[in-house]
């Protein structure tokens, strides 16, 4: 396989992480950040729908690094500083597709699906010459991580899933307010309009009482200035709709698995996480009281400790 890589550079976002661009053999280019000792056990972080790698807070990455891990976070295809996908097919009816998805009917026509995104992750692991890694997948990233663990078991040591779903039919749908905050359009398309929309989204899906308004505003501005590509958000949502249920794949996963979900998650309510844990043999489930669909500072010590204990526990 032909891979190329640009030299590592210090990231402008945190002194703990170094950044690079990785060209994969499937034609995708991923923007990657790596921190921690090169010989430490590696954790690959896979983020969710429309979410740049900065949705993994620096303090969360630092907490894992301080507990003895090497941490890799990256922008999925179609978001952030990674490759953008041009869709040349017909425009799809998202509402109709959502209805079919909810009852377990197949959809087609997306420019790519979550299996393609899992291949990206597998090729990244291969490119970095890692034998196997621990994986934490959040939201859509948790769906990608489930596929990765089932289809590429030699690349995944232990698996951790955060506020995710296996999209089996008839799970409770997202609350309308939270879904619209993620997929809706801003009131204006200038910088301030986009930033305001992102802050509202943080408040809507986040952990009630734990969303820091100053931190949210700063993060929203950084995200906009780093990359703004709403087409990628829509196409990643189509990828979910055209992938469908992961229930059968979950039953193939052999990796030791921890599933964590927030009790106040209204984007993917807790039954989604419980369905994943039930479907994966031997999986452990942890419900975090008060947490929503985000990683606020308040919960980082608890989350990082749970992940570290899971990855260091001897079976």
TrEMBL record:
Single GO BP term: glycerolipid catabolic process
Coiled-coil regions listed: none
Keyword Isomerase: no
Domain of life, per lineage: Bacteria
Gene Ontology molecular function: any one: triacylglycerol lipase activity
Annotated keywords: Hydrolase
SUPFAM superfamilies recorded: alpha/beta-Hydrolases
Keyword Hydrolase in annotation: yes
Domain AB hydrolase-1: 41-295
Protein name per its UniProtKB record: Alpha/beta hydrolase
Classification of source organism: Bacteria, Pseudomonadati, Pseudomonadota, Gammaproteobacteria, Moraxellales
